[in-house]
Amino acid sequence: MGPGTVTAARIHKGQLQGRPGEEGSLAFDRFPNVALSKTYNVDHQVTDSAATATAFLCGVKANYGTLGVGPKVKRGDCNAIKTESNITCFAELAQRAGKATGFVTTSRVTHATPAPLYARTADRMWEGDSELPEEAKEGGCVDIAAQLLGPVGSNLNVVMGGGRKFLLPNTEPDPEQSQSRGLREDGRNLVVEWMRDKETRRFQAKYAYDQSSFDSIEPSETDYMLGLFEYSHMKYESERSMEENGEPSLAEMVQKAIQVMQANEKGFFLLVEGARIDHAHHSSTARRALEEVLSMEKAVLAAMQQVNLDETLIVVTADHSHPLTISSYATRGNPILGEYVDFMPYTTLSYANGPGYRSSPRPNLTNVITDTYVYQQASAVPSRIVSHDGTDVGIYATGPMAHLFHSTHEQHYIYHVMSYASCLDVSGKHCQRLRDPAFYRSHSTLDAASINERTLLYGEVHAGAHKVQLWVALHSIIIILFILKL
Ligand SMILES: [Zn+2]
Predict the structure, then answer these.
(1) CATH of 3-322+388-419+478-484, one of 3.40.50.12780, 3.60.21.10, 3.40.720.10, 2.30.29.220
(2) Contact, 404 vs 456, CB < 8 A?
(3) 420 C-alpha vs ligand 1 centroid, how far in Å?
(4) pLDDT in tens, 409-428
């Protein structure tokens, strides 16, 4: 994960607590297993979020801008989906095994990172039917929102985030933003359809659109939960209203999601996305980005408090990086959002490109306040937005099989570790063997090196667990995957 963002967030956290900051840590800094993930696509050196999400959620690298589909599908090529052999993304894999599945995001629920869990599309921009080009409609391609009612989407136990506009018809006003209407042109109200689908199948289903309706949901009486808290993306944490008509924090959503899914004895899979870190970086507003990371950290802590860590694999990673740097010779404890002075002050944080470009000679920042939520840090190259960054990102893991994150991995390796750890992969041999007490007794101290990346990817798995608790855990393993958009 953009190491610059993680380091800066860690320092900012400490400085908010009145310390110098460098000596502290984020919750996932302390996870026992840390590795790196290579984020390039089949056709791009620097990725977008759709292709990377496809890698870690579906197990294959994909083309830029595509999601839930394999490498034969180029962006915008609706017809290619029909001829491409299907890939199986993680929610479908977990559902087949009877596990609960869900996701929580601060972006629209139809956005690039969560969408590969339930949708297949040649273009991430096809979030609603209003966004589908005529050619794609005629070719039979279905928009992402409609796929929430599809075979995998309709079985997701928890769907929470923003983005009502792609689920509501253009005849219906938004419940919070009455001057806006839904965008669907086909007349469908997918929220109503989602509720009806669960009622038909005799499940207890709940829908929330603000803090008050969120708070009124009792997890023990809920099999399925849909939360759509904004017309588009959810608010930045710094702008979030805590009132009844506001919206829940990421940590609150994670807490409730786990409470709903913990009822499943076979375990669950939850994807959590701190999506607005990315948006803040694109705008070159570093303070917003760092505080979105801290909001994500609270969500990680909330999850850790609610699960048994001996039977829960928690993976924290990023889909890609942003070009944020910590560049100066600042002294210990220098404000991370402040300035460093050589002959003239400049911000310690800066971006390689973006709207914060200021022409030379270097502007004099004396008496300029740089630690506000809207201050745009300097950029070396002028561009409309800060771009993504192609450097490797971190993988932080704890729980059963977390030791398999140990090197510089391809991004799709994350999917294979998750499916291997939870005995969902094609071979599952290690799970059968581990259920045999004789095998288990003789292999209780297997080392991590006996399972290597190559054998995992080709399904020739021949080794077992690394710790005693795994024997118990394999039957009900829980996976929580946190994605920081850094
Ligand atoms: Zn982005």
Answers:
(1) 3.40.720.10
(2) yes
(3) 29
(4) 999 999 999 988 888 865 55
